[in-house]
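Z., the sequence and structure:
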Amino acid sequence: RDIMEAVDTTQKTEGIQTSKQEPSNLKLTLLGVDPRLDRKKFQKILTDHRISFEKTKKLWDLDFGVIWFKTEEEKEKHTDELLLNAKSWGLGDQVAISTKKDGQETDEYKRGRKEIEDRKKERRNPKKQKVPEDIRDRVTPYWRKPYEEQLVEKEQAVNAFFKKAYHSVRGQIKEPLAWIEDRQSLCPLKPILPSPVTQSYRNKVSFTAGKTKEGQVMIGFTEGSLRDDITTVCDPTGTNIMHPTASKLYPHLLRVVQESTLPVYARETHIGFWRIIDLRTFESGQSCALFQVDPKDVPQDQLDAELNRIKTICSQQEGFNSVYYQFNSAVSDASCSSPIHLLSGSEYIIEELLGLKFEVSPTSFFQTNTKATEVLYNLVKEQVMATAGKETLLLDLCCGTGTIGLSMAKDVAEVIGIEMTPSAVEDAKRNAALNNISNATFYCGKAEEVLEKILIKTSGRKCVAVLDPPRAGMHPSVIRAVRECESISEIVYVSCNYKLGLATNLTDLCKSASKRVPGPSFAPEVGYCVDMFPNTDQVEVIVRFKRTEKQKKK
């Protein structure tokens, strides 16, 4: 379900009348809001964090919420604050802003209400929960399709998105720019680039500790979601996405859990010790295992014994270069920010990419398909260098461990990388030294704040920015900072979730200048897609943008 936004429809809620005549410019619709929040809980979060609002709308079981503000100043003031803190406040993990118009919203809202009614009927007449007959249908839903057919389908989906996005962006541009007038789509889309490998390509897999349908202790992939009351875990070895090294190491990880006297974590009761095991296996032959466990109610001597047992079993098996553990007593597996602790082996493992070596720590982001990553980064380099030269300053925003910027360092004058995760920044600095690269500098902090500090470095220079954000896209304040930094003449935007991340940022990149997004806008020049995730519906999308001038239409 992809519900984009709620709308103004006439409705009385606790004495408040909501009508179609409400000013739409005072309304903010948040996507990706936790469906379990109803209007009262939604309002409580806003009130607790001093968000001033006129009224709200949030229906339980729908993943969006609507806020009406009293003034445009209040809306502008709170928008960035909401997006920046949405996850920590409990609004949702990937909250974004909708750009749909009121007419489109009405249809989406009606469909959403119908879905709620359908679910209520289903709960009154519960159906047997559906567990896939083959786990590949859940993990790699395209596995039954020939690879060429997968590529065609993905390219068609991106093409359809570009056409839809064009009409959405067009409505936000006031001045008659030539680029928007001359097209029927966002920009030309080049043929999709395939992955060099389609099987056993993932260099990172996360195994959930749990039990099979038969009650056997297992680490593997979940067969459904907790929301559907499916908590069973199945053997992952038949999925054909695990790296060959991971398949060899998996039985030893399974042994660690199955031979333990401590229970696996039950997500229904939040009780148990073994939670998640992350396994990274690189093309370099090096690997790292990270055990996430819940130490709650476990005596210290027993806890020490279990950690020593992990160390002993992994040390006996050739292939484990690093073994870490992490404590997590929170409800969620993903939101854990606890420190990690080295049990045995080296602090980092090394992957080789485009002739460079990269040290990667357990929690730092690194692309999961190494061979396809080389295709992606070569394409990004090609787009950066389309107009850049040796004098160019490359800004690598959301740089992670520095892979994109460092892979292009020899072709530009200077690389500046910006990243919010401290461990990733340290990785990037080490990687620059490891590869004898002296023209790359990395900063830890918010991109918008770092950009402001380094403006003097960009003044009068040819600057190209690479934006490679998480799934939810760039924070609006980063887009604002990029637009205000007029030295940036071009952007190469890399999106791992174009329907969310790219869709969220497109309007702010391309729309006419305003108080919220000042500075000359950008126009999309050309688009590409790279298949980083064979046998799934996911695809990486790359768009090159060029800074516009106030050009009149032809």
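The mean pLDDT is 86. The CA atoms of residues 121 and 391 lie 64 Å apart.

Let me know what you think.
H.
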